[in-house]
Amino acid sequence: MNKKVRILSLVIMGFLAVASCGKKDPKVGEPAEVNQTVNDSETPSETVDNVLVIEGNDQMQFNKTELKALAGKPIKLTLKHVGKIPKEAMGHNLVILQEGTDEAAFAAKAINAKDTDYIPASEKASIVAHTKLLGGGEEDTIEFTIDKKGTYNFLCTFPGHVAMMKGTLIVE
Ligand SMILES: [Cu+2]
């Protein structure tokens, strides 16, 4: 992180601390979202340990649109459904696609794969890794390794969710 950016994020964090009127003390050492938007080139815990955690909620949202990991090293990814709605109505999974996969076409096929929790068997070759389909309060951890550096799209394949629930996994 260069000095200018660090100072800028400190200024913004300071401003936010004042703006929040002491309702919640900003925790030192906890990565602030502000930091990530000001400088998206550093996410130390993720790139050092290859441990990724992402949440899905009852508002049909992931809490992150970008994940980062290192190539050639096992990645441990946990998806947590932090909502309360059962999976039949608000199911979430996280499916990582091979580069070059047509995401819209994949999602369209997934909608018809209810019996396999919206993982289309015919498209297995396009899938790098995927979690189980989760309902509120559930979580799933998967481990996989990506050897090739690149940008991989991920999405939730529950019907209709791809419009809101998608992002990219950057492998460096
Ligand atoms: Cu979902």
TrEMBL record:
Residue ranges of domain Blue (type 1) copper in the record: 53-172
Positions in coiled-coil regions: none
Keywords: Copper, Electron transport, Metal-binding, Transport
GO MF terms held by the record: copper ion binding; electron transfer activity
Record-linked SUPFAM superfamilies: Cupredoxins
Matching NCBIfam families: azurin
Protein name: Azurin
Originating organism: Flavobacterium reichenbachii
